[in-house]
Specification:
Structural class: mainly alpha
CATH superfamily of the largest domain: DnaA protein, C-terminal DNA-binding domain
CATH class of the largest domain: Mainly Alpha
Number of domains: 2
Distance between the termini: 33 Å
Number of strands: 0
Largest sheet: none
CATH topology of the largest domain: Chromosomal Replication Initiator Protein Dnaa, Chain: A
Helix content: 55-70%
Order of helices and strands: HHHHHH
Length: about 150
């Protein structure tokens, strides 16, 4: 599943008209298809990972590094936790692809270790996690408010 919008408004109108006619012919019901621009909403997994890396003062390229340095490993842990939370349609294989083509079992292991670090109240990890969570929350709010301000009349 891809989250990028690739079709312009006229293409979506081209698709919506036949759908409306098909529903009318098959069911007898009239429907309206609401269309709104999604160019302003850049809520993609890749952008979210970028926000997390910047919140932790790391380069977004660190996700793809094959290292066991604690900062980098915890970056991947936090990234996978927040991806699972905010993009539930992503598979473990897709998440692993963001981390340099790791195996899905590495993502499972990272998720369980991150949950364990939160459970045992690891202060160093919790500081990083809360910082990343705060940045992601602000980023999501900003994206929604930017979209609302551009569409309000």
């Amino acid at each position: 599943m891809y989250y990028a919008t690739i079709s312009p408004a006229n293409t979506s109108q081209h698709i919506a008209r036949p759908v409306k006619q098909m529903v009318k012919e098959r069911t007898g019901m009239s429907i309206e298809v609401l269309q709104y621009p999604t160019e302003h909403i850049n809520k993609t997994p890749l952008r979210m990972l970028h926000v997390i890396a910047l919140a932790l003062d790391l380069n977004p390229e660190c996700y793809r590094m094959r290292t066991r340095v604690r900062n980098i490993v915890e970056l991947r842990f936090i990234g996978s936790l927040l991806l699972r939370q905010h993009f539930p349609a992503l598979t473990l294989h897709q998440i692993a692809a963001y981390f340099g083509g790791q195996d899905h079992s590495s993502v499972i292991n990272g998720l369980s270790r991150a949950h364990n670090l939160i459970y045992v109240q690891d202060t160093e990890f919790l500081k990083k996690y809360n910082s990343a969570l705060k940045s992601v929350t602000q980023w999501l709010r900003r994206e929604v408010s930017d979209f609302a301000s551009t569409t309000s009349v």
